[in-house]
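Morning, I've got a small favour to ask if you have a moment. It would help a lot if you went through both lines with me. I owe you a coffee for this, so here goes:
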Amino acid sequence: MNYPYESIVPNRDLPFKMFLFEGANGNYYREKHWHREIEIFSVFTGGLEFVLEKGDIALSAGQIIVVNSNEVHAIRAPIPNHTLVIQIPLDLFSDYLSPAGMISFHHRVPACDAEANQITDRLNRVYEAHDYGYELMARGLCYEFLYLLVTRYRIENISSALVHQYRNLDRLSRITDYMQQNFTKDLTLEHVSGVFNYAPTYLAHMFRSYAGTTFKAYLQHVRLEHAKRDMDSTDKPLGEIALDNGFASSKAFAHVFRQQYGILPSQYKRQL
């Protein structure tokens, strides 16, 4: 397998990431990828199509899908849509993991589950309003939804083949989690290899084989995501943001930012 691994940075004020789906205008395709977080899509208007290993799933207004941890998936949005996305770190399910260290849910949350749809509808309205204290309401509603997932949609008997695939991907997920927690430090391939008792050449191979990228490129991506979040939510000078997020200099930050977004950080800041 050689599909990109997606690095997910939670919202600054929440223990998970919540946002409106970027393919809202339609004519959108997100290639196959995977991540450690549980991902929830709640469609309010329009429709989405998901490409999963067990087949395609089409969603229309009023339907919800759950994408499991380390599950390879692609997303098509052929028509305009309004969709709320919630990406939940696996740690929030730590008390409910199987002996293999995983948890899995049925993909579909039926439209007839009025309680689940009411929760995501309220989450959408709370997120869009963004009123003072919204994060408290968002946390409470999200935990209500997690309760429904654990009690109604959890798969009890997980196949051995799924466990095997999960373990292969989870090894890299644990490494990327470590990098997420320590990205501001001077991380090197040799250092991270030593933390997990791998040879540097083997860790480099894991990134190429399972994440479709290199160790260095992934680390830069993590730093860039955090730096962009700081740009979106603070008034810190760009040089300070660069150093706070592990870049050697503002010049190095600008180079990576321009490669990813096509403009310089200063231009992006002016647009904000």
Strands lie at 17-20, 28-33, 38-45, 47-52, 55-60, 64-67, 73-77, 82-88, 108-109.
